[in-house]
Write a structure and sequence with these properties.
Blueprint: E1 2-4, E2 12-13, E3 29-33, E4 35-36, E5 52-56, H1 62-71, E6 77-81, E7 88-92, E8 98-102, E9 109-113, E10 119-124, E11 129-134, E12 140-145, E13 164-169, E14 190-195, H2 205-212, E15 218-223, E16 248-252, H3 258-270, E17 276-280, H4 292-310, E18 319-322
Parallel strand pairs: 1-3, 2-4, 3-5, 5-6, 6-8, 7-9, 8-10, 9-11, 10-12, 12-13, 13-14, 14-15, 15-16, 16-17, 17-18
């Protein structure tokens, strides 16, 4: 294992030539941070057994990275974080099962050709062109937007074996026409949606997605709104909605939002297999926390909304958990 990771250290040129021949040593894991990779030796035998490669704050251009990846014949996990010189990333590898690309701000496109890829995660501050040349067994997809960027659902692709989808939006998501195309999300079993603002009427996106993903059993929402007094919202729920197979519903960061209360009632009406509703009043990510006193007041108000408006209307067949 090689680990070089100090984000604030002075950037240096990492000596790849030292890994041409490791004399029998089978290097499995490499984590490099705050360095640069400029030239690749012709025969990088030392990377032949590498299973995991993680690069954070590393200056490396497209051609050099492709050459390194081609030398990692056994590579299964590739993580790229804040590699600002990457422009057009192409990952073609027969053994790769996990790919993560995070905050590579100059990136314009990602091309994936990986027959065994099961998990792909992308986080960025702008839209990139994602082309799936070959990803037939992809099971988990995470698309996380930052800096006011919203991912259109048509960038996600069509994967018959996709089971888990996680989306993060920085603005209210609209109902995309892509949700009306049959077969797009029919294999999904688990969905997590995170919106870094209040949902309001855009909450209708959730049942539209459930309508398109009719086999979903677990739904999670992460909320980052503020304490607001109850307000009646006229939400246009989807027409011709069919009963869901949902059995677990979770809300994180609940602040007593009226749209969330209405969504719970909607799901109770259309989810005969629903067994558990779990509501967390505290937020999971500290960077979105307000002052401690303000957050305590928000959580207390949220619990009051649950006890007053939700609990009396939840049937005995559904277990309501408040944390």
């Amino acid at each position: 294992m090689v680990r070089v990771a100090t984000q604030h250290a002075e950037r240096y040129l990492f000596p790849l030539e030292h890994y041409v021949d490791l004399r029998g040593c089978q290097l499995r894991y490499m984590f490099l941070s705050t360095c640069s990779l400029e030239t690749v030796p012709a025969n990088l035998i030392g990377f032949s057994y590498l299973l995991t490669l993680r690069l954070d704050f590393v200056q490396v251009v497209d051609e050099v990275l492709q050459s390194i990846i081609s030398s990692c014949r056994a590579l299964r996990w590739l993580h790229l974080g804040a590699c600002d010189k990457l422009i057009n990333l192409r990952t073609s590898h027969a053994e790769l099962v996990g790919l993560g690309v995070y905050n590579c701000w100059r990136l314009l496109s990602i091309s994936i050709h990986a027959e065994k890829l099961k998990r792909f995660s992308y986080m960025g501050g702008k839209l990139v062109n994602i082309e799936y040349e070959c990803a037939p067994v992809l099971r988990e997809l995470n698309a996380l937007s930052q800096r006011g960027c919203e991912f259109p659902l048509d960038c996600i692709g069509v994967f018959p074996k996709l089971k888990k989808l996680r989306l993060q939006f920085t603005s209210r998501s609209q109902v995309s026409p892509i949700l009306q195309l049959s077969g797009r999300f029919t294999g999904l079993k688990e969905i997590m949606l995170c919106l870094l603002t209040s949902w309001k009427k855009s909450i209708r996106f959730v049942p539209y997605l459930l309508k398109a993903a009719c086999l979903v059993k677990r739904l999670e929402l992460e909320v980052h709104g503020n304490l607001r007094p109850p307000k009646k919202l006229k939400i246009r729920w989807p027409k011709n909605f069919t009963p869901t197979r949902l059995h677990t519903f979770r809300i994180g960061g609940f602040s007593g939002e009226s749209e969330m209360v209405q969504l719970v009632f909607f799901l109770l009406s259309w989810s005969p297999m629903l067994k558990t509703i779990t509501i967390y009043t505290h937020r999971r990510y500290s960077k979105w926390m307000r002052e401690e006193s303000e957050d305590d007041a928000r959580c207390e108000y949220a619990r009051e909304v649950v006890s007053t408006h939700l609990a009396p209307n939840v049937p005995s067949t559904v277990k309501l958990i408040v944390m």
